[in-house]
Amino acid sequence: MSVIRLTKEFSFEASHLLEGYDGACSQIHGHSYRLFVTVKGRPNTDTSDPKFGMVMDFGALKKIVKNLIIDKYDHSLVVRRTESNMQFIESLKQRFDRIVETDYQPTCENMLPRFAGELKKALPQGVSLFSLRLHETATSFAEWFEEDNP
Predict the structure, then answer these.
(1) Does residue 108 have an active-site annotation?
(2) Catalytic residue of the set 25, 101, 109, 146
(3) Does the N-terminal or the C-terminal CB of the chain have fewer CB atoms within 10 Å?
């Protein structure tokens, strides 16, 4: 049986700031993110199983990504937790619920490995994460591939 790749696209709205950055992105600003999740595996060969012929049910993949990424990041402010901005973060948290604190600069390049780590743990047996692609804008994106990150 052939190895097949499945891709599902997701979208979420989030804002962030790049602390210490030497340009406009040091200011709070938002993006309409598009996330492409590609998994791979062999289709189910059990003819008595309702998932016969599937690598993975797209609905199951949607649920995993929604629970681990979309529900956390959609309509959130993503900000790196540093000593110099702790007071800022605490003041935001007094007024807003959707503050995501990170230990990394919240760039696409840094978000992808975090997303990959979470997703890899949640995929069913026999299905592996192949790649992620995160669009920050319509024309700018970063990609993560498992083969580059063994």
Answers:
(1) no
(2) 25
(3) C
- For residue range 15-69, list pLDDT tens digits in order: 999 999 999 999 999 999 999 999 999 999 999 999 999 999 999 999 999 999 9
What secondary structure letter does DSSP report for 88?
H
Task: State the pLDDT at residue 76.
Answer: 98
Q: Which of 9, 29, 75, 90 is catalytic?
A: 75
CB 99 within 8 A of CB 92: yes
3-state helix, strand, coil in the chain (%, to 5): 35, 35, 30
pLDDT over 90 (residue 150): no
- Reference 83, options 100, 110, 106, 101; nearest CA is 101
Tokens 């190895």 — which residue? 3
Are 130 and 136 spatial neighbours (Cβ–Cβ below 8 Å)? no
Among this protein's residues, is 136 annotated catalytic?
yes
Strands (E), 18-145: 29-41, 76-80, 99-102, 127-137, 140-145
